[in-house]
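TA notes, week 10

Several of you asked for a full example with nothing omitted. So below is the full record: structure tokens for the whole chain, then the designed sequence directly under it. When grading your own attempts, check the secondary structure regions first.
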């Protein structure tokens, strides 16, 4: 199973910066075999990334989308618009969407189904807050998030579904989860998929860890038995740091 490492740029980079980053990454691309690398720029830079990545195995992702195909939804972007922009993956239910923009679990579920219907591969983000971890309800929170996001999903057709375990308290704080905690949560996610959709589906699922991943700690996450990649924010913004991170991940899994 290929590792999947995604750069979530959030609200950073214009078109020119995006194109320059992609060109630099392409120079190293030949060394990233058996690793799926995704760039998720803001909507406004998707076209620039698409152009700069044309002919490359590096893939394009979006950070959000609406579940409807068209309509009176000011400020929203439809799944088919992403497909039209060359997007293959879409991050859904990121904690910043849930906590800063009030995105509800039922909306996350609609987005997952709409993404799959359009042929986009969703990266479903789940994770507990610091308070929830302290209250020892992490598994309950993950279970609720998985249940509402995957309700009614035909998982056999959900090819390419990725789940990112991102503890909210670890995002952008410089304080990553311990590999033990990440493994416990990722393994719980796999068990949930196995119990509700079957062992085969759980085997196919890739679980990423996200939250203050950097070139120094990525090796400890990608070598965990239940983790197959990372969703990276801050450390993906500079080409040098992102390239170092990919190299460190590959080195760790190959050694
Ligand atoms: P971070 O962000 O790597 O900056 O912690 C991760 C994310 O929000 O996906």
């Amino acid at each position: 199973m290929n590792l999947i490492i995604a750069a979530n740029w959030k609200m950073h980079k214009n078109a020119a910066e995006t194109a320059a980053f992609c060109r630099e990454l392409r120079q190293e691309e030949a060394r990233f075999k058996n690793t799926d690398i995704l760039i998720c720029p803001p909507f406004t830079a998707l076209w620039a990334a698409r152009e700069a990545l044309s002919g490359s195995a590096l893939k394009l992702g979006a950070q959000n989308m609406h579940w409807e195909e068209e309509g009176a939804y000011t400020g929203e972007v439809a799944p088919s618009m992403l497909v039209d922009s060359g997007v293959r993956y879409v991050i859904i239910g990121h904690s910043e969407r849930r906590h800063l923009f009030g995105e509800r679990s039922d909306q996350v579920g609609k987005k997952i189904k709409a993404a799959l219907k359009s042929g986009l591969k969703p990266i479903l983000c789940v994770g507990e807050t610091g308070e929830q971890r302290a209250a020892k309800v992490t598994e309950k929170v993950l279970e609720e998030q998985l249940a509402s996001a995957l309700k009614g999903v035909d998982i056999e057709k959900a090819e390419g579904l990725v789940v990112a375990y991102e503890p909210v308290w670890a995002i952008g704080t410089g304080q990553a989860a311990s590999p033990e905690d990440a493994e416990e949560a990722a393994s719980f996610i796999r068990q949930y998929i196995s119990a509700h959709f079957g062992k085969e589906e759980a085997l196919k699922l890739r679980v990423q860890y996200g939250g203050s991943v950097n070139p120094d700690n990525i090796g400890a996450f990608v070598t965990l038995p239940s983790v197959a990649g990372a969703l990276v924010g801050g450390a993906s913004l500079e080409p040098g740091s992102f390239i170092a991170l990919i190299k460190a991940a590959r080195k760790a899994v190959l050694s």
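The beta strands are 3-8, 35-40, 59-62, 89-92, 121-126, 162-165, 206-210, 229-232. Use that as a sanity check on your answer.
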